[in-house]
Amino acid sequence: MTMRILGPAIAAALALSPAARAFDGPELYAGERALYQSAQKEGIVVSFDTGPTWANWAAQFKAFQARYPGIEMVYNDLGSAATVVALDKARNRPQADTAYYFAASALDAVAKGVVADFKPVNFEKLPEPFRHPAGQWFTIHTLNVAFLVNTKLVKTVPTSWADLLKPDYKNAVVYLDPRSTGQGQVVAFAAAFGNGGDMDNVQPGLEYLGKLSKAGNVLRTVGTTPYAQFLKGEIPIWIGYENDGLKAKHVDGMGDSVAVVMPKEASAAAPYAISLVKGGPNPNAGKLWLNFIMTEKGQGIFAEGFVRPSVPGVALPAGVADKLPPAPQLKPVDIAKATAKKAEIDAGWAKAVLGR
Fold first, then answer.
1. For residues 257 and 280, what is the distance between their CA atoms, to the nearest angstrom?
2. Which one of 1, 171, 327, 356 is most buried, counting C-beta atoms within 10 A?
3. How far is CA 257 from CA 140, 172, 324, 325, in A?
4. What is the mean pLDDT of the chain?
5. Taking the model in full, what pTM does it have?
6. CA dist 235 to 136, 227, 353, Å?
7. CA 329 – CA 255 distance, rounded (Å)
């Protein structure tokens, strides 16, 4: 597999891989073969912020290059906000073909005019909150709020938001501070969804988190991910992202000592999005890459990395179907509304939880 990591600066000249014949077998979507032939003339796709250890990007790279020989894959791992800064700085001579980020950064990219209209395969199947009307960004997978429970420290595993208020969970709960973290903001929406609120009314979630603190059940709130502390057995219950719990369980050795529970009332699905860069150097290769990750095959590869596909109804690979059971109580976070609510959540959380 030919793959290179880019730093913030990319060399102007990139060697192209040799052309290869088109793939055998049926197309994944109408027009795939013709697009591949056009992409071969470019020979490379430059994919910003797709770090290989996150969301199973390494497996996506491998599968893409196996299907499309002759297309070199180049990537970096800048982070969402830094990706938008890099696109803006290079707007007169774009270096990237595609850009991946938490969807709030996608809104910034649209506002700065650095991304292009493109509707990939399965675009119309996405819920409306998960896509820009013209395709300037679209959600490719979600991260979903769940209870990550250390069963060695917690006798009875909670299954609902209501359960967490019980005396059984004194000094047991950890979650990220919504004032300084995106995940904390999503937790606030998840708590709202689970307690009668919605995207327009997050107050029930803030009131709930206030009750959780007043009950004495919050061990602490944190400003950075406590994954390492969770693995060490220092956290009884983490209200965090489902994929972290599944990774701890199936990859990093916790096994049966961790339970991953989607609260039964409701929870929140946070969108992670991607865009075609406006004026990118390899537009056909970029479109080929974006289409691939939105096919059923590409969506299944995300599931193998324990993140849920964004396209409804995708059949999950056999090895992960039991690890990501249907969760109809998941509700999509409308990122535009979420961004508009940030100040309200910051102030409301401080008042409900900290009393100030």
1. 47
2. 327
3. 30, 16, 18, 19
4. 93
5. 0.88
6. 40, 9, 20
7. 25
Q: Please name which of 222, 250, 216 lies closest in space to residue 235, comparing C-alpha atoms.
A: 222
Phi/psi class of residue 113: alpha, beta or left (left: φ > 0; alpha: ψ in -120 to 50)? Answer: left
CA angle, residues 172, 178, 180, in degrees to nearest 5: 115
pLDDT band at 8 (very low <50, low <70, confident <90, very high): very low
- What is the dihedral angle through the alpha carbons of 214, 165, 333, 58, rounded to the nearest 10 degrees? 110
Terminal Cα distance for the chain, rounded: 55
Beta strands in the chain (DSSP E): 3-5, 44-48, 72-75, 98-102, 115-116, 138-150, 173-176, 218-222, 237-241, 258-261, 267-277, 308-309, 330-332
Q: How many CA atoms lie within 13 A of 31 on its CB side?
A: 9
pLDDT band at residue 140 under the 50/70/90 scheme: very high
d(CA 351, CA 156): 31
Q: Please state, in angstroms and rounded to a whole number, the distance separating the CA atoms of residues 76 and 48.
A: 5
Structure token digits, residue 103: 């969807």
Structure-token pair, residue 142? 């979600």
Helix (H, G, I), strand (E, B) or coil at 151: coil
Q: Could you identify the residue written with the tokens 């998960």?
A: 130
Q: How many residues appear in the chain?
A: 356
Reduced to 3 states, what is the DSSP secondary structure of residue 273? Answer: strand
CA dist., res. 87 & res. 70, Å (int):
26
pLDDT in tens, 19-64: 456 688 899 999 999 999 999 999 999 999 999 988 999 999 999 9
pLDDT digit string (tens) for 223-252?
999 999 999 999 999 999 999 999 999 999
Residues paired with 99 in a beta bridge:
48, 275
Cβ atoms of 202 and 352 within 8 Å: the answer is no
Instruction: Report how far residue 74's alpha carbon sits from residue 69's, in angstroms, rounded to the nearest whole number.
Output: 14
Give the span between the Cα atoms of 126 and 312, in whole angstroms.
7
